[in-house]
Amino acid sequence: MIDTTAGRRFGEGPLSRASALVYTLLVVELLLLTATLPGLVGLVLLDRDAANVPLAALCLLPAGPALSAALYALHHRRLDLTDLHPAAAFWRGYRANAREVLKLWVPWLVWLAVIGSNLANFVASGVPGWWGVLSVIIALAATLWVANALVITSLFTFRARDAARLAAYFLTRSPRGSLGNAGLLVVAAGITLVATEVASALLASVLASMLLLNSRSMIAEVRDRFTI
User: Fold this and answer.
1) Which of 53, 72, 74, 144 has a CA positioned 20 to 30 A from the CA of residue 86?
2) Cα angle value 46/197/164 (rounded, 5°)
3) What CA–CA distance (Å, rounded) separates 123 from 137?
4) Cα(first)–Cα(last) distance of the chain, in Å?
5) What's the CA gap between 33 and 28, in Å, rounded?
6) Domain range summary for the chain, segments of one domain joined by +
7) For 171-226, how does the pLDDT look when each residue is reduced to its tens digit (9 = 90+)?
8) Within 10 A of 206 (CB to CB), how many other CB atoms are there?
9) In contact, 74 and 28? CB cutoff 8 Å
10) 14, 21 in Cβ contact below 8 A?
């Protein structure tokens, strides 16, 4: 007589779950790099010059839908080692969310490109020092907002304008999550400055999983209060 309980136990232990997580992160990372490859190549080839800020923003255009797909795949990942389909989940999330994500991602990129160009020419422009500090604060707030918007749009079905409002609402509603995301932003910026954009890209799936972890309270509240 065949023991069917062994099959149920296999893939459900701590080691198997850890292996499932590592496998999912690796697959999602590979797909994310594939989806952003044209822009990533452009970023690597661009010189770090003020005149290239708009081009850098253009190179980041494919990253929005790709990050959204990564968030979707990681959120819906399976714990059972015998039932892993991260690639299918990634492309399902990409197809479902790309359009709404771009409605939020593109305005953020444009706004960031404007701020970046102003800061890059800060000395030549002769504007007061406080204006530069204010610009950095605005850029940080906008980036934290788009992080919330990516999570909400990736995991729930909202119109872009509703997702934008919720993302802004949760900036202060979930201060711990915003603070955690600010820390992730500092880490990603530090890696980029010390190494290259490629180094940050190679850790994108890990950073996305940390973003989901920081957003747990926001995700739970959106599910409980704003969905049927």
Assistant:
1) 144
2) 100
3) 18
4) 47
5) 9
6) 5-225
7) 999 999 999 999 999 999 888 888 777 888 889 999 999 999 999 999 999 999 99
8) 14
9) yes
10) no
- CA neighbor of 35 nearest in space, from 74, 86, 91, 75: 91
Query: pLDDT tens digit string along 153-174?
Result: 999 999 999 999 999 999 999 9
> In the numeric block, which tokens belong to residue 27?
């697959």
Q: Cβ contacts of residue 199 below 8 Å, gap of 6+?
A: 191, 192
Distance, in Å, from the CA atom of 87 to the CA atom of 84, rounded to the nearest integer, reads 9
Tokens 């892993």, residue located: 84
* Token digits of residue 132: 């530069």
- Residue 52 is classified by DSSP as G
Q: What percent of the chain has pLDDT over 70?
A: 90
Distance of alpha carbon 69 from the chain centroid: 9
Helix boundaries (H) for the chain: 5-9, 14-45, 53-59, 63-75, 86-120, 122-125, 129-155, 160-173, 175-194, 197-202, 204-214, 216-225
> Could you please report the per-residue DSSP string of 153-213?
HHHS---HHHHHHHHHHHHHH-HHHHHHHHHHHHHHHHHHHHS-HHHHHHTHHHHHHHHHH
CA-to-CA distance for 208 and 156, rounded, in angstroms?
17
Token pair in block for residue 99: 């359009």
